[in-house]
Fold this protein.
Amino acid sequence: MIKKLLLSALVLTSSLIASNEVNVYSSRHYDTDKQLFKMFEKDTGIKVKVIQAKDDALIKRMESEGKNSPADVFITVDAARIQRATDKKLFQSINSEFLTSSVESKLRDVNNQWFALTKRARIIAVRKDSKLANGIKTYEELADPKYKGQIMVRSSSNVYNQSLMAAMIAHHGNDYAINWAKGVVSNMARGPKGSDRDQAKGVAAGIGSTAIMNTYYVGKLASSNESDKEVISKLNILFPKFENGGTHINISAAGVARYAKNKENAIKFIEFLLSTQAQEIFAKGNFEYPVINNAEISPLVKSWGKINDDNVTINDLGKFNKDAVKALDIAGWK
Ligand SMILES: [Fe+2]
């Protein structure tokens, strides 16, 4: 009898321990996130266990772990990968009044399987002394032959460019987008190579006048070492728009894993990441845009002016990813 009681006490304790944690698979690799996870632990007493790896590696891992996956929350970056994870049924729909009312519908899954955590814009950084480049208003005109030899951008294997192309397809259709990409390719200052930051450095060095890059990399360069600060001092940050839309937005997002063992904790964790306090830490520490309306952004990001988000949904960016990859290939964007 005593043995039985002891055993059930043990089972009870171990189930309590199991429910006092949240297992997070994340492809974000920023100090802001570590800080936030610690804050969540302190606030709730729920232990945050993180496995951090590249997006596609985590997707593969969750697929092969199946029902045995310890993942409670999956955090990933870029619409195409979020869509991939959704297609592979790695998330589950959740019911959270707080999340559905905080995150506008175009920044969350139609079935509430994932919610945007942060926004980033794909913009252009142009050399201050280039009159021509400072006149660019739209993404469409990046293909205009008058910008021959001006454009610096990374490879089409990069998912950020694929999502920009997916947005171009969503706005104008496949044929237009292919021609647009051909135009951009013939305007490139050099073959695509390097990271977003390298394009900014190339423009500052005078190789081209216009770097296509994500906003937070500008922030990271501006808060880095002296030579990176020097790079940024030579650039103007411009927000192109689509002719019938706004500035291209991408996101990082979080969802509850399909086989989450700690579902309540997972929801609590995602709700915490969308609190005003957490959103301001993402925004100020990592130069991203908050997803909720009342959170403050970093003064540097604020100094670039107000952003008008494009009207293409994140779901659509994911949906057009395959077409975008094909179209970029046809256009010869290496
Ligand atoms: Fe990035």
In short: The domain at 121-248+307-330 is CATH 3.40.190.10 (D-Maltodextrin-Binding Protein; domain 2). Residues 2-18 form the longest helix (17 residues). Confidence is low (pLDDT under 50) at residues 10-17. The radius of gyration is 22 Å.
